Amino acid sequence: MTFNKLSAALRGTMAAALMAGTSCFASAALAEPDMLLRAGHSSALTSTGHAALEMLNDRLMERTDGRIGIQIFPNSQLGGEREQIESIQLGNLDMAYVSTAPVASFDQDFFVLDLPFAFKDRDAVFRVLDGEVGHDLLDGLQNVGLVGLAFWENGFRQLANDKKVVHTPDDLAGMKMRTMENEVHIATWRELGANPSPLSFSELFTSLQQGTFDAMESPINLFYDMKFNEVQSYISRTNHLYGAWVLLMSPDTLAMLSDEDREIFMQAVAETTADQRALAIEADDKAMAAMPEVTITDLTDEELAAFSEQMAPVYDLVAEKVGDELVQKVVAAAKGE
């Protein structure tokens, strides 16, 4: 089975699972599996991504009678996201879920998902990720030694800092801003007047604690899971970017699965994707309510417009990398056109 055929098959099972909203699965068998897949990630044990890997393990253990399972390495135990991607390419790691931003360093087309203020809501997001654009992005990863299995939900990214409430770009002037290791993210915050620098996620908490950075941005559920509320006092709900995770697999690992096990695996991924997305939406709401010590500000339409109106140079940068046609596809799909 070729990777393109695999991706097409996975899309079919995923669509069925997303419509059904299936979330029932049995507990994993206690016996050690014959094939133990090593899966890494950079988020906390309490994250919805970690919970999803546990769900996927349970489904695989049940449906293969305990032959296939997953050993999970959380909290960047196997390195940062870039290092985990490289390990998958080298065949040293079977699976990982990572942010889409560092994936763009391996496949430039992924920069298109970093278009700031491109998505009005989750419906707009999934018109892109579950449509032609998302399918092509996952399929394209085969060209860089990766198998793209699915897009998982990590939520809209929000601006946080420990200085003041941010209402407009002027409030960011001179603020030391941590960004992901992604050229488009850096350009976005530079256009908005901040002083951005990339830093590995695993080093972020300590850097904020020591005052190396004033500000950061992340989905609210991740902000809460990683206890950034202990070092940041203000959140402005900018929704400037949507934070997707992409579930990656080593092609060498995939090739080890029989046709029957591959079908079981794809179905389990599809069902787990539906469950993970639902969990992530709930996690955002719970995180908001669990941080009374943080001042969370909803920006007005006029305030949000002041941010988005400065993004033309960033759109030009993305178009230089991926082509204007792909940019326009994303913009049109997000609008439902």
Secondary-structure blueprint of this entry?
Blueprint: H1 3-20, E1 35-40, H2 48-63, E2 68-73, H3 81-90, E3 95-99, H4 100-103, H5 122-129, H6 132-140, E4 147-161, E5 176-179, H7 183-191, E6 195-198, H8 204-209, E7 215-219, H9 220-225, E8 234-249, H10 251-255, H11 259-289, E9 295-298, H12 301-308, H13 312-322, H14 324-334
Parallel strand pairs: 1-2, 1-3, 5-6, 8-9
Antiparallel strand pairs: 3-8, 4-7, 4-8
Helix pairs in contact: 1-11, 2-11, 7-13, 13-14
Distance between the termini: 34 Å
CATH topology: D-Maltodextrin-Binding Protein, domain 2
Major beta sheet summary: 7 strands, mixed
Strand content: 15-25%
Summed over residues and divided by their number, the pLDDT gives a mean of 92
CATH structural class? Alpha Beta
Q: What is the H-and-E element order? A: HEHEHEHHHEEHEHEHEHHEHHH
CATH homologous superfamily annotation: Bacterial extracellular solute-binding protein, family 7
Total helix count? Answer: 14
Class of secondary structure makeup: alpha/beta
> What is the correct CATH architecture?
3-Layer(aba) Sandwich
Give the uncertain stretches in residue-range form: 1-5, 20-29
Helix content: 40-55%
Keywords: Periplasm, Receptor, Signal
Pfam families: DctP (PF03480)
Main location: periplasm
Signal peptide: 1-28
